[in-house]
Amino acid sequence: VQLVESGGGSVQTGGSLRLSCTASGYTSDNDCVGWFRQAPGKEREGVARIYSDTGSTSYRDDVKGRFTISLDSPRNTLVLEMNNLKPEDTAMYYCAAGDPANVWGQGTQVTVS
């Protein structure tokens, strides 16, 4: 089982990024998948999650209206669209599967300046 993130980078305040997470060797019809982030010196925090069977989503308050999580099930790909990025969004972003999360990707860095 492997989760591989991509799409991180450096942007200016107000910019956008699209993170992708592709799963290999992992399939589930009723699992929770989502994105977490961890900034230097801070604890890891949940950003957004989606349930693959219902499509139900949830977001942390400070990203609501700016971030959108989606799941491309045929391609086993989880996407996080991030708009109107702020410096406080700077962190390593991880995708994860399970509730609680028990399968993790290696992370992709997002830097907003």
What does this structure look like?
The chain has no helices and eleven strands. The protein has strands at residues 2-6, 9-11, 17-24, 32-38, 45-51, 57-59, 67-72, 77-82, 91-97, 103-104, 108-112. The strands form two sheets. Strands 2, 4, 5, 6, 9, 10 and 11 form a seven-stranded mixed β-sheet that branches. A hairpin with a 5-residue loop joins strand 9 and strand 10 (103-104). It is globular.
Task: Walk me through the topology.
Elements: E1 2-6, E2 9-11, E3 17-24, E4 32-38, E5 45-51, E6 57-59, E7 67-72, E8 77-82, E9 91-97, E10 103-104, E11 108-112
Parallel strand pairs: 2-11
Antiparallel strand pairs: 1-3, 3-8, 4-5, 4-9, 5-6, 7-8, 9-10, 9-11
Shape: globular
- Mean of residue pLDDT? 92
Q: Care to count the β-strands?
A: 11
Distance between the termini: 34 Å
**What oligomeric arrangement do these chains adopt?**
single chain
Order of helices and strands: EEEEEEEEEEE
- In percent, how helical is the residue content? under 10%
Structural class: mainly beta
Return Rg in Å: 13 Å
Percent strand equals: over 45%
Largest sheet geometry: 7 strands, mixed
- Uncertain regions: pLDDT < 50 for 5+ in a row? none
DSSP helical segment count: 0
Short description:
The protein is mostly beta strands and 113 residues long. The protein contains no helices and 11 strands.
